[in-house]
From TrEMBL, chains A, B:
It comes from Amycolatopsis echigonensis. This is PPK2 family polyphosphate:nucleotide phosphotransferase. Residues 1-41 are annotated as: Disordered. Residues 34-262 form the Polyphosphate kinase-2-related domain. It comes from the Bacteria. Gene3D superfamilies: P-loop containing nucleotide triphosphate hydrolases. Residues 10-19, 31-41 have a biased composition (Basic and acidic residues). Keywords: Kinase, Transferase. InterPro entries: P-loop_NTPase (IPR027417), Polyphosphate_phosphotransfera (IPR016898), PPK2-rel_1 (IPR022300), PPK2-related (IPR022488). The keyword Transferase applies.
Length: 284, 284
């Protein structure tokens, strides 16, 4: 237990967004090799499943807390794969997934946080956002459609929104999946070469790739302006899928370990219920 | 492929609801032993994950089809465990879980299918109902609150509703998890004995157990009246969790294999996109 507490921030501390981005193929903390990473993911998965069950049970018992994992990153950075390999480790009953595409005409009529709020996780749940409100400070900025003043206003709105969430018991874990342009080229090429992967490709991915430096600049600004004490950003080197999976799983395990979700106390007398149960016997 | 087609209904045919319920600890089809069952679940899981990905891709490409798994059964029959062990085998992006508890005051003001319709799976998704509209012909009947005429009316409404779903491309897989009263006693006792399981126990579980014969009668009637050609019931012997998991996974695999979901044809010229991608090169 003491050890757990001592190391409770190890991965979060090592991956917290700083002034410099790590090498997308590096291991700032944790396993260096795939074989080790796979084993460590397995044990992180068991921890995560147990912690998630406790959080779910706490929610059933009336608890209000939840976790929101926000996944951001360039196309092919592995948002969907992370959902499959990390969130896939826990009971789907406790997971709430929401993907955010380009806002629809109806959504654009509202404040940019409107559609986000509707998808926040319920108490006891592990929510995951595959893209998020951060798209609304990234895409329009790169397209030259977001004046600096409005951008600053959105940052302030995001920070206030996330403060509201954390104040109300939702731990917000924001992850930037950081890949290299070389790795993206390999992955986009694979999506074109393999027929069963083509559905993941969209011609607009190439437009975004053309804007790579502008996106990197926009991301750097986002990481700087919206990494707060209540909701810091983590940068996960994501060129190696096994490292990415392990790192995101560990970020969730550390977060949930700190939350220390509690199985609720029964609202009934256990001995009384045991006696009642025995009294029923085995019906014919 | 020929073999697949020949055996494509093997598990569905064997588990389809008939006049008699199978022994809850039997294997009407498939593995007899736990070790074999575990291995077979693993391979069914791989098939299921692949089929689910194709269905999801089909949905992204504009396809309207989906799957709805309806789980019913007495308390402790393993609805939640099935979700964890079977739906947990596929990417959570493609799974939509909905649990139905006792209807709220607001829900009771509407037709009983109102709250159900709101939770139907989106195109390309694998929806799972943990309890369902069937609660509304089971519970009120056992409590003596559903006159026979109204019950018959609800059966007709359910059959029409499910016909509408299947006509519109949603495969409906209805599973009755069949446990013995002896096994339920063991599981309820375990929930009381183990503090980390107590949150799953509700004193009303004992009331329902007291009504065991009435529930069995109500279930038999439901299986008879609502097992239709478009949406038959399957009875899964569920005293052994490994058998239950394997059987439900196989029912889904057979259903999806028959649907034969298709990766969508690209809406772009692959060679053109490949050239465009190479043209961008590696941004600095």
């Amino acid at each position: 237990m003491a050890k757990k507490q001592q190391n409770g921030n190890r991965v979060r501390d090592a991956l917290r967004a700083g002034d410099e981005l790590p090498d997308p193929a590096s291991s700032p903390v944790g396993p260096e090799k795939k074989a080790k990473g796979g084993k460590k993911l397995e044990s992180a998965g068991e921890q995560l499943a147990g912690l998630q069950e406790a959080l779910y049970a706490e929610g059933i018992g009336g608890g209000q807390r939840s976790v929101l994992l926000v996944l951001q990153g360039m196309d092919t950075s592995g948002k969907g794969g992370t959902v499959g390999h990390v969130l896939g480790l826990v009971n789907p009953m406790g997971v709430q997934y929401a993907g955010f595409k380009k806002p629809t005409a109806a959504e654009r009529k509202h404040d940019f946080l409107w559609r986000i709020r509707k998808k926040l996780p319920s108490p006891g749940h592990l929510g995951v956002f595959d893209r998020s409100h951060y798209e609304d400070v990234l895409v329009p900025r790169v397209l030259g459609q977001l004046p600096a003043a409005e951008r600053r206003q959105r940052y302030a709105q995001i920070n206030a929104f996330e403060k509201e969430l954390t104040d109300n018991g939702t731990a917000v874990v924001k992850v930037f999946l950081h890949i290299s342009p070389e790795e993206q080229l390999r992955r986009l090429t694979a999506r074109l070469d393999r027929p069963e992967k083509r559905w993941k490709f969209d011609p607009s991915d190439i437009d975004a790739r053309r804007q790579w430096p502008a996106y990197q600049k926009a991301y750097a600004d986002v990481l700087k302006r919206t990494s707060t004490a209540h909701a810091p950003w983590y940068v996960v080197p994501a060129d190696r899928k096994w490292y990415r999976n392990w790192a995101v799983a560990e970020l969730l395990v550390e977060t949930l370990t700190e939350m220390d979700p509690q199985f609720p106390e029964p609202a009934f007398d256990v001995d009384e219920q045991r006696a009642a149960l025995q009294g029923v016997g085995v019906p014919a």
